[in-house]
Amino acid sequence: MSIEELQYPLHPEIERVSQRLFREGHYQKAVIDAYARVIEEVKTKSGLALAGDSLMNFALSCDRQTPMILFNSLQTEAEREEQRGLTFLFRGIVELQKSKAASNRLFNERARAHEHLTLASLLMRLLEIATVDRLP
User: Fold this and answer.
1) Residue 60 CA: distances (Å) to CA of 34, 42, 113, 116, 128
2) Could you tell me which of 99, 96, 103, 91 has the C-alpha nearest to residue 52?
3) What's the CA gap between 46 and 41, in Å, rounded?
4) Are 113 and 22 in contact (CB under 8 A)?
5) Distance from chain centroid for Cα 97
6) pTM of the full structure
7) How many domains does the chain have?
8) What is the CATH number of the domain that holds 40?
């Protein structure tokens, strides 16, 4: 099977918030809403009343703390590197969402917007399989 033949169904929540907008050609709004939904899910899962980088750092970062949302057991350096890498992806969507006013060119093409929606979908799926360890 070639890459062109792959069909990737978006996460149901990303479809819910972005499908109509994407279909109608509102690519930037579709992506921004998808990223907002991912950020909302991090907030919900962690129970933190934070936003932006602070939310992602407290909820996901394994540097100098045990994160509230874990993608693995953090027992090896490779696992800690994986957690860090995923934290950077989540922090990246926070920054991309903030850039919406500054740079429409990142989201104004159908294929590029679809790639952003695919990233949001992947992050939602990762949150589904993550372990959540809320503070008491």
Assistant:
1) 19, 9, 25, 21, 14
2) 91
3) 8
4) yes
5) 11
6) 0.92
7) 1
8) 1.20.120
